Amino acid sequence: MASLTITPGRSLQGTISVPGDKSITHRAVILTALANGVSRVTSYCRGEDCLNTVRALKALGVRIDESDEELCVHGKGLWGLTEPNGPIDCGNSGTGIRLLTGLLAGQDFFTVLTGDESIRRRPMGRIVKPLREMGATIAGRKGGELAPLAVMGSRLRAITYASPVASAQIKSALLLAALFAEGTSRITEPRLSRDHTERLFQFFNIAFRREGTTLLIEGRPLVGWNAAPRLVIPGDLSAAAFFIVGATIIPGSDVTIRQVGVNPTRVGLLDVMMSMGANIQLINRREEAGEPVADIRVKSARLHGVAIGPDLIPQTIDEFPVLCVAAAVAEGETIISGAEELRVKESDRIATVSAELCAMGAQITEKPDGMVVRGLGTAEDNGRLQTAHGRSHGDHRVAMSLAIAGLTTSAPTVIDETACIETSFPDFHRTLLELLDERR
Ligand code: S3P
Questions:
Q1: Given 77, 404, 427, 440, which residue has the most CB atoms within 10 angstroms?
Q2: Same domain for 127 and 143?
Q3: pLDDT band at 1 (very low <50, low <70, confident <90, very high)
């Protein structure tokens, strides 16, 4: 069983890069596979989640040449996918399985989609129900609530659907299905979730309209879209988040993270950290593939607690595990509410983060929809956690957050079950060691 040992006592210094954005990589692979011609996707995320989506598209008949830096995707056009000759394994990826289910619902062939133990526990009814309303034939465990899902491709009709949750996975699954459906679909979400699918649609000139939080899209376009000779994936803010929090809470740190995606639907962590007192600067702002990008410079700072309500949840959703580390060492109370979606992520993050950080001396009270964190910091200094033997619960973001928590303790911290870090950030430990460089 893989484990990670974190040795505290040094500040974080230097300039690093993080993997390409995981959400954008999934979408780029799918949309370039459906394009006409050959696309080149560079700086993509080589985490297992995205590699599983690459394997899925290969199984669906798309030629994809991989190198460390670039994917060369030989797009087969909108109607060019073909039946795979075995089940598709999406591994640990909720985005992978949900987007692919939407994509495959309207094909003229049969597919089975499955994943690891965590994926087979996660709710699929949220996409299966609206897809069935579009005419999809999908079977699964517990009436389609749980994977494996068997998708008997069928002729879809457009849908008017108001999602009860602000979820980019639901929105994107339905947008992909809507491309193959007859008529105009109208997809509404209660709050704007990450809009990478919409931005890539724009990048590829795939027609749709936005009216508030409703997207309107006409299915079965007569002509598809052209391949992208160069699609550069920005760095993943959700990977940068660990170093943003680490550099803030460890005194004497100064870290720059190059080329990070700063899409407004993703930057909740930056806003919350700055309202807690963090010293974060965005420099060299530019655009890549229709996404805003910047270099992020972070210097250590003293933090104080804040209230994070429902309005801030969608744009911060994946960063709560590491944000809780910041809250645990800040001065005063941080209250997180309206975040019940955290219970259905790779792990129940309200439960796993509370349990693991409390074992390190944090003071956290679980709530059904969030938590109350009483920070250990004072007006003079950020607080410090205590060494404990940590466990990831199979959740990559919990594993990496505990590593950052371990930087604040007085003795080394061991974290077990860290193989899951491979799903999003294979080089996490090496990048952290680079910032802690012992030769300094
Ligand atoms: C993602 C959407 C979010 C996020 C997940 C990636 C995406 O999930 O938590 O890590 O790429 O669409 P929800 O759609 O469930 O909110």
A1: 404
A2: yes
A3: confident
Q: What is the CATH number of the domain that holds 148?
A: 3.65.10.10
Q: Which domain holds residue 36?
A: 22-231
Whether 4 has a pLDDT exceeding 80, the answer reads yes
Whether 254 maps to a domain, the answer reads: yes
In this predicted model, what pLDDT tens digit does every residue of 326-371 receive, in sequence order?
Answer: 999 999 999 999 999 999 999 999 999 999 999 999 999 999 999 9
The single residue listed with the structure tokens 């499955």 is: 114
Strand, coil or helix: 174: helix
Closest CA to 73 of 50, 106, 97, 96: 50
Ligand 1 atom at minimum distance from 317 CA: 9
Q: Are residues 201 and 307 in the same domain?
A: no
**Total number of domains constituting the chain:** 2
Q: For residue 49, indicate whether it is catalytic.
A: no
Catalytic residue among 89, 318, 395, 427: 318
390, 360 contact by CB (below 8 A): yes
How far, in Å, is the centroid of ligand 1 from the Cα of 228?
24
Beta bridge pairs of residue 157: 182
Residues 422 and 48 sit within 8 Å (Cβ to Cβ) = yes
Average model confidence (pLDDT) for the chain? Answer: 97
Residue where a domain terminates, one of 231, 246, 280: 231
Domain end call among 231, 262, 287: 231
Domain membership flag for residue 60: yes
Q: Which residues line ligand 1 (CB under 6 A)?
A: 23, 95, 167-169, 172, 193-194, 317-318, 341
Centre of ligand 1 from the C-alpha of residue 265, in Å: 11
| Pick from 47, 435, 439: nearest CA to 243 | 435
Q: In what order do the strands lie in the sheet with 413-416?
A: 3-6, 413-416, 389-391
pLDDT band at 440 (very low <50, low <70, confident <90, very high): low
Asked if the structure places residue 440 within a domain, the reply is no
Nearest CA to ligand 1 atom 13: 167
Mean of the pLDDT values across residues 415-427?
98
- Could you tell which of 95, 200, 347 is best to mutate to test the pocket of ligand 1, judged by most ligand atoms within 8 Å of the CB? 95
